[in-house]
Design brief:
Layout lengths: L6 H4 L11 H23 L12 H19 L6 E2 L6 E2 L15 H4 L2 H27 L3 H12 L2 H6 L3 H23 L2 H16 L3 H20 L6 H20 L1 H12 L21 H9 L14 H10 L6 H20 L10 H23 L12 H17 L2 H7 L2 H11 L4 H20 L7 H4 L8 H10 L4 E5 L11 H5 L13 H11 L28 E6 L17 E4 L6 E5 L6 E4 L1 E5 L2 H8 L9 E5 L27 E8 L2 E8 L3 E8 L4 E5 L2 E3 L2 E3 L3 E6 L2 E9 L2 H28 L1
Parallel strand pairs: 3-4, 8-9
Antiparallel strand pairs: 1-2, 4-6, 5-6, 7-12, 10-11, 11-17, 12-16, 13-14, 13-17, 15-16
Length: about 775
């Protein structure tokens, strides 16, 4: 097969199985292997980049620490269900943004985090271009036009903005492959095609960008459903096609249940689930109005970040010609309508979507549609004169030239410099229409596209590939000293929000147990606790104990978090080491460099025993009790009235609990971290009481005392406790959330069914 032949000359004569040639697809893959690192290095890694900026916050404060910790544990052979380093403990696998189960994140298992981020971006750009070319080829467009469409998609403004967010980059990889798989199903309507589409949908959901996944699922569903419209309802063919659509959905949701089920369980009890469950925001500028959308679509002038609606000047020239492609007109109209609907939806909600739904997700079908229409339009214009049946190209060429002239006259130099070279290429080909000119014209057009999108996709902000882990070692000496000074307790940090060397999530990088964290999912009780601690109302979107300041309202809550050491970075609010009101005493210890460290002498140990309890209803009442002047934390804990096993505390009201502290010998407690998901506490209690573990309470934890199952009490607001009888005991806490088991079961059922279908297919063939 001559891979330079336009689609109109070969598609009609050949069956669908011959639409993909190995050699041309390999050549397209090689092109993207070469261009991917070029585009990434030119747009993401630049000299004289800005380091401290809010645009870097997600990258340096969330993604780098989270991936460093999660995949570091996986490299050691453990599945990271729980993050013991931040927020006194918090779920990890349930945060889909980390992408623990995403196959594209394999580089993080074997490489340093900063190098893995770069390789991950190269892989994603390469696969985005290749898979989109595959999608375009499935539509019936020629290989060279498919290559052009893949370049527009892979190097668009949205792609440049998503490359620094591994979650979004993975979602953009699986988007064209899912659309291709659904189209293949629409050609065959067999179970095998439905299963392939379902698996691809599962990979998209495993990316963790649920907003992107939802939008792409709607687009794929619309395309698939149109195949039912032409079939009489109730007929055998209608039933067969509808059953295939159900199979796609069940396979996608079943295989990916191991991820979305824990995420859903966490979101249902989260304080602000929509701030993280949809996925991260891209590192780019989103349009805020319809006018700004058109400005972004036309002008890609590089600013501080990529414009996510920009796809280059070339698509604007070739899109009108797509409507003249008689064999691809249905696809052109369908995707044009989908793009228009996405923009109309954004306009209807005034570009502020409900439920904090990210606008970038609506831009995805726009980018897909524009790239596809560009490929169809170019395929229609660049049609060689192969036989007397060849279509006339003068009308689409004249329309394309008219679009070029209009752009040249209406807009400035940043548009004109890309429009001007297109005109001679079009005229040269239109006059001669020789086959030898076809690759030359596409090379010229492709070069214009690449230069345009590279210039528009540049960002001025630093990427971890440039200075990590050096930036996290700024306070290396101080953090090493803090590890010794904390004596097994937790640290609390007070730093500037944009300080990359001492972030709220430094515990995941430095191997320290931290009382705080930023950008992590928090339960409603955790969010209220941190709000009362810092005094910052509305801190549920991005809470952080790094915001500790002398004005923190209830800084005495730090003692209940087992925070024994406070680290104050230079220019931080706590640099003077004092509280304006009542707070724990701060005793300065020897500091390292410019960092000052203060010991909280009255901090409670991570595990301790108390003889008495006070029952309260709700977290506000609990915090009021904990911060009361007469509350003795060494002799009493506060138990939530709705805790399971509250009836087991009746023994604490007996005569033995009335003994004075002076008459009672001290209890001994020791903590052993077998793993973040398994904690062993050994206690020798002089009387009946409660053993308190200052780790975050979560319904996924279960406990046993001396091998017998014991209910976990919700103690001191957000921590765990076990009713402990007198004597020496071993208490074991194990984290195994029910949502993980349900998700694993659904995934296993789906995979077994897929395997059985494969076996049946092989048997039938033999």
């Amino acid at each position: 097969m001559n891979w330079l032949r336009p689609a109109d000359e070969i598609e009609i004569a050949l069956p669908p199985t011959y639409r993909y040639g190995a050699l041309p697809l390999f050549a397209i893959a090689v092109v993207f292997i070469v261009l991917a690192p070029v585009f990434w290095n030119e747009t993401q890694v630049r000299s004289a980049s800005v380091g401290e900026a809010r645009e870097n916050a997600d990258l340096f404060q969330f993604f780098y620490p989270s991936y460093h910790y999660a995949f570091g544990r996986m490299h050691e052979g453990a599945l990271p269900l729980w993050n013991s380093r931040q927020l006194c403990g918090t779920p990890l696998l349930a945060d889909a943004r980390v992408g623990v189960l995403q196959p594209l994140n394999l580089p993080f298992l074997f490489m340093s985090t900063e190098h893995a981020m770069a390789l991950h971006a190269f892989m994603c750009l390469f696969m985005m271009g290749l898979f989109f070319a595959l999608l375009v080829r499935a539509v019936g467009v020629g290989y060279l036009a498919a290559l052009l469409g893949g370049m527009v998609y892979a190097f668009s403004g949205l792609s440049a903005a998503a490359m620094s967010r591994p979650t979004l980059a993975a979602a953009m990889v699986w988007t064209p492959l899912l659309l291709w798989a659904v189209r293949e199903y629409a050609h065959r309507f067999d179970t095998a095609s439905a299963i392939i589409a379902g698996i691809t949908g599962a990979l998209l959901m495993l990316s963790g960008a649920y907003a992107f996944a939802l939008v792409v699922a709607v687009v794929a569903f619309v395309y698939a459903v149109q195949s039912l419209v032409v079939v009489e309802r109730g007929s055998a063919e209608f039933t067969k096609r509808a059953r295939g659509l159900i199979v796609i959905g069940l396979v996608a949701f079943g295989v990916s249940a191991v991820q979305w089920m824990p995420t859903l369980a966490l979101a249902l009890r989260a304080a602000n689930p929509f701030s993280w469950v949809w996925g991260p925001q891209p590192g780019g500028i989103a349009p805020a109005s319809l006018g700004e959308f058109f400005v972004q679509a036309i002008s890609g002038r590089a600013e501080v970040q990529p414009r996510i609606a920009y796809v280059g000047v070339v698509p604007l020239v070739f899109i009108p010609a797509a409507m003249f492609h008689r064999h691809r007109r249905r696809d052109a109209v369908l995707y044009a309508l989908l793009a228009a609907c996405a923009v109309a939806l954004a306009v209807f909600f005034r570009w502020r979507l409900p439920l904090q739904f990210p606008l970038s997700a609506l831009m995805l079908p726009v980018i897909v549609s524009v790239a596809l229409l560009t490929a169809i339009g170019a395929d229609r214009v660049f049609t060689t004169r192969a036989s007397f049946r060849s279509q006339s190209i003068w009308l689409p060429v004249m329309v394309t030239l008219a679009a070029s002239v209009a752009l040249f006259l209406l807009f400035g130099s940043e548009v004109r410099r890309y429009v001007l070279p297109i005109v001679p290429v079009l005229l040269l080909f239109a006059v001669f229409r020789a086959r030898v000119l076809l690759p030359l014209c596409y090379v010229a057009i492709g070069a214009i596209v690449l230069i345009d999108l590279v210039n528009a996709g540049r960002t001025i902000y630093t990427h971890p590939r440039q200075d990590a882990p050096a930036c996290f070692e700024t306070y290396k000496q101080a953090l090493a000293s803090a590890r010794d000074q904390s004596l097994g307790g937790r640290i609390a940090t007070s730093a500037r929000e944009l300080d990359r060397g001492l972030t709220a999530n430094i515990g995941m990088v430095a191997g320290l147990n931290s009382a705080g964290g930023a950008g992590l999912p928090m339960s409603r009780d955790q969010a209220l606790w941190h709000e009362r601690l810092t005094g910052e109302a509305g801190s549920t979107a991005r809470p952080s104990v790094s915001s500790l300041s002398p004005a923190s309202a209830n800084s005495q809550l730090l003692r209940y978090m087992a925070a024994r050491l406070l680290i104050a970075a230079p220019q931080s609010p706590m640099y003077e080491g004092r509280w304006e009101g009542k707070g724990p005493a701060l005793r300065e210890v020897s500091s390292a460099g410019e960092v000052r460290m203060f010991v909280l002498d009255d901090a409670l140990p991570r595990a301790y025993w108390v003889p008495r309890v006070q029952v309260e209803v709700g977290l506000p009442a609990t915090i009021d009790a904990l911060t009361g002047e007469n509350f003795d934390a060494t002799q009493m804990c506060v138990v939530d009235a709705e805790s399971k096993g509250i009836s087991d505390l009746a023994t604490l009201t007996g005569a033995s609990a009335q003994q004075t502290a002076a008459a009672r010998p001290n209890a001994t407690c020791s903590v052993e971290d077998v793993s973040p998901e398994r904690v062993v506490v050994r206690v020798d209690a002089p009387d009946n009481g409660v053993t308190v573990l200052c780790d975050t309470f979560d319904s996924g934890w279960s406990a046993s005392i001396d091998g017998k199952r014991a209910p976990i009490l919700k103690v001191n607001g957000i921590f765990r406790g076990i009713a402990t009888p007198q004597g020496a005991h071993e208490i074991i806490f194990i984290y195994r959330p029910w949502s993980l088991y349900v998700g694993l079961t659904l995934a296993c059922v789906a995979l077994v069914w897929i395997l059985l279908q494969g076996v049946r297919r092989i048997v039938n063939r033999t």
